[in-house]
Amino acid sequence: MNKRDIYEPQPWDVIALSDAIPSCIDDLNKPPRYYFPALVVGVGDVDNPNMFEIFTTKPIFVQKRQETKRETLFATFLINITTNIRIWRALHAEEHLNLIKVVLMVDSKAGEKFDICPSQEIQALMGYPDFDLNSLNLNESQLNAVLSSVETSRCNHKNSVSLIWGPPGTGKTKTIVTMLSVLLRMKCRTLTCAPTNIVVVQLFIIFLDYRVDRLAECFAPLTGWRHQLNTMTSLLEDPTSLYHLYLENAKIENEEKKDGHEDGNENEVNQSIQSEEEEEDETSAKVLTFSEFLRKQFGCIAKEMKYCIQNLCTHLPTSFISATIVSKMNRLLYLLKSLKVSSYGDTFANEELEKLFDNSEDVENTTSQTSASCLANCAKECLKVLKFIRGEFSVPDFFEKSLIRTFCLEKACLIFCSASSSANLHDAPPFELLVIDEPAQLKECESAIPLQLPQIRHAILIGDELQLPAMIKSKVIVLFLF
User: Fold this and answer.
1) What is the spatial distance between Cα 115 and Cα 99, in angstroms, rounded to a whole number?
2) How would you classify residue 382: left for phi > 0, otherwise alpha for psi between -120 and 50, otherwise beta?
3) What is d(CA 17, CA 73) in angstroms, rounded to the nearest whole number?
4) pLDDT class of 157 with cuts at 50, 70, 90
5) pLDDT-above-90 percentage for the chain
6) Beta-carbon neighbour count of residue 175 at 10 Å?
7) Average pLDDT of the chain, as a whole number
8) Nearest to 231 by CA among 297, 329, 328, 291
9) 0.85 exceeded by the pTM?
């Protein structure tokens, strides 16, 4: 049996328990075999990963066939009903029904165009002069759709449900991307839903779990961003002291190795003095010179800092990290690269390097642009940027993945998920706007799940009710990339 054929229970799985492994669905009903359905209501935790709780249609009696063997039951996955349960709960909910009432036209004025907030889209975009919609090559209808969406998001007087409609090939995807870019720039907290996760992946390739894993590495107290920032600052401020500390530790380590070697060879009286001298020379040769120590330490720290900067700029919510800090981090990457090229490209004596860092201010005041002065100036600017970032920006103190996940959901301006999984966002901070892509491919009852999230005032539906889903669902054909 392949590993992919092994069933791993998930909450709300409907399974068939049988006394034999069925090769097809018809085997479940072949006498004398029997089966009965069960529902997985709980799965194991870290301490008990192989334990799960089920509800069955009848009690399970364990009968012994022999003294040493017990009857074995096999579980066959049938279907997962998580979405069905969420739909059931949404249909029976009695709270947060404002948008549902707009959809059902409970209010006789619900379908009328409201003009309480005239020209609000223009006022909203005036605060972002660097964002030019005309540069995006939108046609008139696409531009009107974007501006209307912005106007809707800024209105606090009335709930509304809007529709952006267009047949295939008319640029709905481009309109969505532009609209979400504007809403992100405006810091409008927006939830974007789709019928399935496949559609969501087409819109946004970075999953939350992947984002959490990368941020957990950056938030780690002993190896993450804060540690790298402090270590690089200390190295550029006073590398000479760090090198002397390294020499002391290396001396102690070599003495301990030498003492251990002598203790292990007390009975070897024939060992020659020449071999001892050669071993001593080999041991002392392992101690790095100042330039080697500086290059090695700088290279290791710079590599880790580059990894952290790339992940922080990519995965931190834009509401948490400012554009100024991102700009400073990019500048820091350039300076780190320049320092590496300068220190590796030019040959400096150990004494010259020590004097260079000890008297960086004197070197800076010189008028000649020598290799030494360029290196010193680059190091000083790099140190200045490091201190600025440390003073203006700090990562959270926690690094548990559950807390990072909550942090991302609370701080993010744009969140993408399927309509069904939006049921998990009831406890998240409220959203201002709901966008549903291809709602015609949703069951009407399933769209009630995101429409009932707390405090959402407006919903925008984007799609074409005549667009048909894929008719070929064969897994065999999928393997041939059809």
Assistant:
1) 19
2) alpha
3) 6
4) confident
5) 25
6) 23
7) 79
8) 297
9) no
Class of domain 95-206+401-463: alpha beta
Largest CA distance in the chain: 107
Nearest to 37 by CA among 13, 53, 5: 13
Query: Taking residues 110-133, what's their average pLDDT?
Result: 52
Cα–Cα distances in angstroms (integers) from residue 435 to residues 112, 117, 163, 239, 417, in the given order: 20, 20, 10, 54, 11
Cβ contact 113:56 at 8 Å: no
Higher pLDDT pick, 156 / 357: 156
Interatomic CA distance for residues 419 and 409, integer angstroms = 16
Residue 245 has which token pair? 């500390």
Percent of the chain residues past pLDDT 70, beyond the cut: 72
Determine if the peptide bond prior to 454 is cis (ω within 30°): no
pLDDT in tens, 201-225: 544 445 788 889 999 999 999 999 9
Q: What CA–CA distance (Å, rounded) separates 16 from 4?
A: 19
No. of helices (H) and no. of strands (E), the chain: 18, 9
Q: By the 8 A CB rule, do 178 and 138 touch?
A: yes
